[in-house]
Amino acid sequence: MCRLFGLSAAQRVRATFWLLEAPDSLAQQSRREPDGTGLGTFDAEGRPLVEKQAFAAYADRQFAREAKERESRTFIAHVRYASTGRIDVRNTHPFCQNDRLFAHHGVITGLDSLDEELGDYRDLVTGDTDSERFFALVTKHIDQRGGDVAGGVAAAARWVAGNLPLYAINLILTTATELWALRYPDTHGLLVLDRAAGGPHHDRHLDHASPAGTVRTRSGDLAQHPSVIVASERMDEDPGWHEVRPGELIHVDESLTLTRLVVIDHPPAYLLSLDQLGHRAAASQDQELTARQPPQDTAHAAHASSPAAKKA
Known about the structure:
By secondary structure, this protein is of the alpha+beta class. The protein has one domain (3-262): Glutamine Phosphoribosylpyrophosphate, subunit 1, domain 1 (4-Layer Sandwich). Helices cover 21% and strands 31% of the residues. It has helices spanning 26-29, 58-65, 111-118, 130-144, 149-163, 279-285, 299-302, 307-311; strands spanning 3-18, 36-42, 48-54, 68-80, 95-97, 100-108, 166-174, 179-182, 191-195, 206-209, 216-219, 227-231, 242-243, 248-252, 258-262. The strands form 2 sheets. Strands 1, 2, 3, 4, 9, 10, 11, 12 and 13 form a 9-stranded antiparallel β-sheet that branches. The chain has a 6-stranded antiparallel β-sheet with strand order 5-6-7-8-14-15. The longest helix has 15 residues, at 130-144. The radius of gyration is 18 Å and the shape is globular.
């Protein structure tokens, strides 16, 4: 499944990322290789820098294996298994809108209805994924609330939860100094670590590695500086990892103050099961699917009775 990783520090720090740890990693041994990787950071002036690549050839995969040392206050990394949209760099996370970076893990259907809700904000979408459309909806609600990012994320998620069939909408959003993350509903896990300088032993650099062999990051600076990390899976043995509750929005401000608030306390109106997704979307959400499952597209049947599906 897609991998999400976000890191926030109280000052600019150096970190090195590998988005596929090694050619013989578990990611390469899985039934489906990743469809793209991306890393988002911000320069000293607060301008976003997005480096991403779709995997169309072996040379593209080398992009994900090469070490990328970057300096930023916030970082966002994503490994994509495509559910909606072609394998194309325009569909690869993270996405950038209004100097904010966004990565998503999940599936949203009824995209014609979502396009209708976006109105003019549909122009922000350059690819054809549900993720970038959902980001545009978040941006719309942020603008309607005078720049309130938390309010915009919560409002967009509530609208999708009430109107569109969905499997999950886990997300991470960053600016040059702040980070937000949402888990909804309880389909996929999302974890947060409020890491003291040096970690639990107070004297160690950061060295985090995904068990799946995808995202890995190291930072010597974080032996001296605290940080907050959000990830789709536990990245090390630090006992401080805590699961984000379903419907909970995480916010890390510029001073590393961590706030947690449940912003959606009810289940989705049209929750899709894994069996109701088409083969491609289901495989993107569950890498343990067996090869016995034939390619099919049954998602339309799962939500044909919903109001949004009738518009889509």
